[in-house]
């Protein structure tokens, strides 16, 4: 396969890795292609907070020497990657998308960064986010709005909007995002890319600035499902530096991605996950499920009664924990927060201890109800988002022609997976009105291989029909 240098940035890791290993392409060429693309799209898309051209090229040269001398480290060796600017890198500024931390420099790497460095990843920069990862639009008052490459008037989703937009515009080959109430899956759906929120405790959060301690996850954002599996393979594992890390053996995620879904039992919950969904979105997701049925999967309806309370429980939990984290700055320098998140932090001071503890009881029941469902089915499939991305600056989206609140609707199908800590994957399932739609695949705890395999089987049916943003 011959790939022109300027086209390298548009490839996936699974396409590039074999060629890198054989020495048919160079990490330097790929990195230059990605950096050129990042710089060319920055004015239009604004996905990056910082681009590391000089450092990245040095790392790429090092990777090239290692690979050429037979020291190939694996699938991500020599792959250029930018990550969300809430993940610490030693001696680099990590802004958290904020004014307050605009000059913060960490003296250590996040555990996930250390693991990626060991794997030979080339870091090309830091990607924009909604301030402190607390929002779904990525309309950042300090660093500017990130725009959706499919339609630059639209939001890319958030809070990892820079990661989603950079992937869709080929300004990075892969990325890491964080997910507290959908912040990996929302931009993945809105930008037509793959996003995985793995099981809570599966990936270390050490060196990642928190939003809500009991809801936060760090996970892969990629162009393909196999890329997500390969990235999870690197970053997964117990870390004693993270008190929430769980010591469970790491599976062979790449090996689990076979595409065989014969006899897979797909759960569908009509009462919650298919209620109040835009008709264009619903059609694509139901078609996606049918494509797996065509490959031998079966469908069974499941009931999860406590889902009706999940919005409230997630809101109380996230507001309370986030406000506790930012309480001191909220008291001493409230003017330095963006107005939207300042309001959320102020609201977070209102719930009582009783409210918070009652929310945790809902959470406990929700975990039990999901477990009962997974006693009958292998995975649960649903829309990632019930609506299409809205216009930048507007606080409403359209649901079957009716105006609805953006935040309430965009996080509606996200919170249950954060409350339960269950793994959830968003994969592109087509375009509606020219905008990407995501299908969400939820699995039992620590069964990332199962949902990745289901996502891969669906991906093989080419739901996007090879279409990419026309931004060039």
Poorly predicted runs of 5 or more residues: none
Shape: globular
Enter the CATH topology name.
Answer: Amidase signature (AS) enzymes
Number of strands: 15
Order of strands in the sheet with the most strands?
A: 6-8-7-14-15-11-9-10
Distance between the termini: 23 Å
Summarize the structure.
Residues 29-452 form the Amidase domain. The chain has 472 residues and is of the alpha+beta class.
What's the arrangement of secondary structure elements?
Elements: H1 13-22, H2 27-45, E1 48-51, H3 53-68, E2 80-84, H4 111-118, E3 122-127, E4 139-140, E5 144-145, H5 161-168, E6 175-179, H6 185-191, E7 194-197, E8 217-222, H7 225-235, H8 253-256, E9 265-268, H9 270-273, H10 279-293, E10 298-301, H11 310-332, H12 339-347, H13 353-374, E11 379-383, E12 396-399, E13 402-405, H14 406-410, H15 415-420, E14 424-432, E15 435-442, H16 448-459
Helix pairs in contact: 2-3, 5-6, 7-16, 11-12, 11-13
């Amino acid at each position: 396969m011959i790939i022109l240098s300027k086209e390298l940035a548009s490839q996936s890791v699974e396409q590039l890795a074999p060629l890198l290993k054989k020495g048919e392409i160079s990490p330097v060429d790929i990195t230059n292609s990605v950096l050129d693309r990042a710089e060319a799209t920055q004015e239009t898309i604004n996905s990056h907070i910082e681009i590391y051209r000089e450092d990245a090229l040095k790392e790429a040269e090092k990777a090239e020497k290692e690979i050429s001398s037979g020291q190939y480290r694996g699938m991500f060796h020599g792959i250029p990657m930018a990550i969300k600017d809430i993940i610490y890198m030693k001696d680099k500024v990590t802004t958290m998308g904020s004014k307050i931390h605009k000059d913060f420099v960490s003296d250590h790497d996040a555990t996930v960064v250390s693991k990626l460095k060991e794997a030979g990843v080339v870091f090309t920069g830091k990607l924009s986010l909604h301030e402190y990862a607390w929002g779904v639009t990525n309309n950042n008052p300090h660093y500017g709005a990130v725009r959706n490459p499919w339609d630059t008037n639209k939001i890319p989703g958030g809070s990892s909007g820079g990661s989603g937009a950079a992937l869709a515009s080929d300004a990075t080959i892969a990325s890491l995002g964080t997910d507290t109430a959908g912040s990996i899956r929302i931009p993945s759906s809105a930008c037509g890319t793959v996003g995985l929120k793995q099981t809570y405790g599966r990936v270390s959060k050490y060196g990642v600035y928190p939003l809500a301690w009991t809801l936060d996850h760090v996970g892969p954002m990629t162009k393909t499902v196999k890329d997500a599996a390969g990235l999870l393979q690197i970053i997964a594992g117990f870390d004693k530096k993270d008190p929430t890390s769980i010591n469970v053996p790491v599976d062979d995620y790449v090996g689990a991605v076979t595409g065989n879904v014969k006899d897979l039992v797909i759960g569908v919950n009509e009462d919650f996950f298919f209620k109040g969904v835009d008709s264009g979105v619903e059609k694509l997701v139901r078609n996606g499920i049918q494509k797996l049925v065509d490959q031998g999967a079966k469908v069974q309806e499941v009931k999860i009664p406590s889902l009706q309370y999940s919005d409230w429980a997630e809101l109380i939990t996230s507001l309370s924990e986030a406000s506790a984290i930012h309480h001191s700055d909220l008291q001493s320098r409230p003017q330095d927060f963006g107005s939207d998140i300042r309001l959320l932090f102020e609201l977070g001071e209102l719930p009582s201890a009783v409210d918070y503890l009652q929310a945790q009881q809902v959470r406990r029941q929700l975990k039990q109800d999901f477990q009962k469902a997974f006693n009958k089915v292998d995975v649960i499939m649903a829309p990632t988002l019930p609506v299409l991305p809205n216009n930048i600056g507007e606080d409403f989206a359209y649901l079957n022609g009716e105006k609805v609140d953006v935040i309430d609707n965009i996080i509606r199908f996200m919170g249950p997976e954060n409350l339960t800590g269950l793994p959830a994957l968003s994969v592109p399932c087509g375009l509606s009105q020219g905008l990407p739609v995501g299908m969400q695949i939820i699995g039992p705890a620590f069964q990332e291989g199962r949902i990745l395999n289901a996502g891969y089987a669906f991906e093989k049916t080419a739901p996007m029909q090879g279409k990419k943003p026309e931004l060039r």
